[in-house]
Design brief:
Blueprint (H helix, E strand, L loop, with lengths): L13 H10 L11 H14 L6 E3 L2 H12 L4 E6 L3 H4 L4 H6 L2 E5 L8 H5 L12 E8 L10 H13 L3 E6 L2 H8 L14 E5 L9 E5 L2 H4 L2 H7 L8 H11 L3 H21 L5 E2 L7 E5 L2 H7 L6 E4 L4 E5 L6 H14 L1
Parallel strand pairs: 2-3, 2-4, 4-5, 5-6
Antiparallel strand pairs: 1-7, 6-7, 8-9, 9-11, 10-11
């Protein structure tokens, strides 16, 4: 039985597992001074620029905390969408690690805009108020919406005009790039993003993320921040080797397209059934929809997925790199049976 709860629930792509297995040979210098990490670094510089140095960490929350600490001092504030991952799913880690105030902004699709952000830029220079310093955006948002390059550029220009940084949480950046048919750099550095958390765990990797700073002053202390944040892995090759397989032959894009395509196919088939209503556009690998409570109850006996709004019978379904047409057919058949 395949889960539609999260792309975190899928297994590891065979090419990624092979890369880990190949790295598990003999001894290698620890903390990143090994050939596997050097090879992965070369892929990052090829994609994002020769001056880029990736800092590999264990997980998404760790990556976000390392990135945000690089951008802030304790009297700063971090602006995020109300539904942003750092606001709802990281157990207060931003406040704990940065000592900053997190200011949440209501937005119907999880996407920030300069107009929405500007309302929170007050008390500048006033010693009684925290000072806005970072705009945090998720690509893709927690509500499945994708920022276009133009939208990201607009936010970055606004941030820089107001002496702020933009941190992009790219845990599903690959899905956004697949949807927009663009590259990773075109949605990040070329738009003015200052620091990026790039994940692969939701897209076929076993574990690990990378933090990439596009401004020298943010990159300067990343290695120290990573260490203090308990995110420095001694056997770095097992994290970094995955990225070589991930980037080679565009596996990242292949996996993202597969999960996106399966989500669109699932949406098409479910929309044709009575009693089902899509509540958001499908722009990535996530679907948001409502169906009768009785149907949901029956489905949960055989499938694992999450309520998004239990009071409104709204659920979230997420497809993964390994979701197949057969998985879609089986799930839709079960829905049809229980409607």
């Amino acid at each position: 039985m395949k889960s539609f709860a999260s792309d975190n629930n899928s297994g590891v792509h065979p090419s990624i597992m092979d890369a880990i297995h190949r790295a598990n040979t003999g001894h290698a210098i620890g903390y990143g001074a090994d050939e596997y990490t050097c090879n992965a670094d070369a892929h990052f510089t090829e994609i994002f620029g020769k001056d880029v140095v990736p800092y590999y960490v264990f997980n998404g929350t760790g990556a976000n905390m390392v990135a945000l600490q690089a951008c802030t001092k304790p009297f700063h504030s971090i602006i995020t969408a109300e539904t942003g991952h750092i606001n709802v799913d990281e157990c207060g880690a931003p406040s704990k690690f940065t000592s900053c105030m997190v200011k949440e902004v209501y937005t119907p699709d999880g996407k920030l805009t300069p107009e929405l952000i500007s309302k929170h830029l007050h008390g500048i220079g006033d010693q009684h108020h925290s000072q806005p310093k970072v705009i945090y955006i998720s690509q893709v948002t927690e509500l499945g919406a994708v920022y276009t390059a133009a939208e990201i550029k607009s936010i970055c220009e606004f941030a820089h005009e107001n002496d702020m940084y933009v941190h992009m949480d790219g845990s599903r950046l690959a899905n956004a790039a697949a949807y927009l048919n663009t590259g990773l750099r075109e949605l990040t550095r070329d738009c003015g993003v200052d620091i990026l958390s790039l994940g692969g765990t939701k897209n076929g990797m076993m574990m690990g993320e990378a933090v990439i700073a596009f401004r020298p002053e943010l990159a300067e202390n990343l290695k120290f921040i990573r260490k203090q944040s308990a995110q420095l892995y001694s056997k770095m090759r097992y994290l970094s080797a995955q990225y070589t397989a991930y980037f080679e032959r565009d596996l990242w894009l292949e996996n993202a397209r597969q999960s996106n395509d399966m989500a669109r196919e699932l949406a098409i088939q479910l929309e044709s059934l009575p009693g089902i209503q899509m509540t958001r556009k499908v722009q990535s690998n996530a679907l948001f929809l409502t169906m009768p409570a009785k149907t949901i109850k029956e489905l949960l006996k055989s499938y694992f997925f999450y309520f998004w709004n239990e009071a409104g019978n709204e659920i979230r379904l997420v497809c993964s790199w390994d979701t197949t047409p057969g998985d879609i057919e089986s799930f839709v058949s079960a829905v049809r049976q229980h409607l």
